[in-house]
Amino acid sequence: MPPLLTQVARASDALPLVATSTPTHSFNVTTQIQQDAKKLMRSMTAGNPNKMSIVSGDTVFYYMARDNLCFLTLTEDSYPKRMAFLYLEEVADAVMRELVNEFGHGWRDKVDQAARPFQFIHYDPVIQRKQKEFRDPSQQKSKLNEDLSEIQTIMRKNIDEILNRGEKLDHVSNISQELRTKSKDFKWGAKKLTWQARLQQYGPMAIGALIVLTIVYVKVFHIGF
Q: What contacts 7, CB < 8 A, 6 or more positions away?
């Protein structure tokens, strides 16, 4: 069975640029699955590894980042892990080749300037051709024989862990903002208390000195007159 869902997005904000799905007689790519894919893309941050597998029931999402793009595909859990990442690598090669052909060396700027979702949906046939090539993993044995030992070290997580982490990060961000606001209020209050303390400490001395200076001035002025 080929990869069931493939999405390409802008890495900076997860804006979807092109996506394709291949439902089968035994598996339907539901709206919920598509929403989970979008949430996963948004949950990925700069701190994440460039490659990751995310388990979701009897399916697995595979994620890969390259340059200013990120790639996501969904397969059944029986689909070989090596093959899934090899598929993403070839999709990345094909999409970036199309970008270079269309925009030349300025393709990165075109990706960064994309203003609407699925702006590069015309690359969909390119991804579909790759899906057909990877329909049967046994036909890709020659590619699997290449050195892909790094795949064994790729992080594997559960989808709930990733999505919940995204919610927690939002919560932490809100708390951080509140703390910054309270910190500013605290600093202002501390400055105010400091000035009040200094006024109480040095105020009487300043008033006394002012009185003495006034008396001296009056006497000197009177003598001079």
A: 16, 18, 19, 37, 38, 41, 71, 72, 73
